[in-house]
Amino acid sequence: AQSVSQHNHHVILSEAASLELGCNYSYGGTVNLFWYVQYPGQHLQLLLKYFSGDPLVKGIKGFEAEFIKSKFSFNLRKPSVQWSDTAEYFCAVNAGSSGTYKYIFGTGTRLKVLA
Amino acid sequence: ETGVTQSPTHLIKTRGQQVTLRCSSQSGHNTVSWYQQALGQGPQFIFQYYREEENGRGNFPPRFSGLQFPNYSSELNVNALELDDSALYLCASSPPQTGAYEQYFGPGTRLTVT
Question: CA–CA separation, B10 vs B107, rounded Å?
Fold first, then answer.
């Protein structure tokens, strides 16, 4: 069965620190990959997505992610976090099996950035 | 452009009751997906609707059912509520030009079953 693993459940950083959140998935076929962010009290928002092409994708708010096919990974990075990045981050995979484009989400990583 | 909207925002029900949650898709979006997000977990796929037909289902029992209307809005119905059904229910809509590869989420309905 397809699954998504997010290694870090809680991360605490100081402002200006660098961020890397891990995401690994299990699926042997073609996948579409996403990172979503959920700010406190707000709905899920798309940070970035990978469908094909350049494995290094840039998203909103200075986030980027790298798809490494051989490692089944899609890690999220940001060189310098801000207090406003405090949120929960979800990695998701969309494998489009049988024409059903469901997302499989990881369990999320709660990021707290200290001012 | 109005995004995905859901109603109600919060709901409290008693075990054994039935509930209907509603979702209005983003303008022009013709595919709607429903997810359940339990506390501390990522969203789990319930089912998806396309052109008023169910287009795939996750590991949820038949007491979870849905509808999609000609205007692409959708309902999620849950019968015989159980305590474990307490969760945030998310609706997501997708534009036709991307299939359902891109999903835009609503704010969710928080259901509490007592």
Answer: 11
pLDDT tens by residue, A52-98? 899 999 999 999 999 999 999 999 999 999 999 999 999 999 876 55
DSSP H or E run through A77: strand A73-78
Quick check: B56 contacting A, CB < 8 Å?
Answer: yes
Q: Do B40 and A107 touch (CB under 8 A)?
A: yes
What chain B residue is nearest to A32 in terms of C-alpha separation?
B101
Neighbours of A27 (CB within 10 A): 16
Across the interface, whether the CB atoms of B42 and A4 are under 8 A apart is answered: yes
Helix (H, G, I), strand (E, B) or coil at A25: strand
CB pairs under 8 A between A and B: 65
pLDDT in tens, B40-60: 889 999 999 988 999 889 999
d(CA B49, CA A100): 9
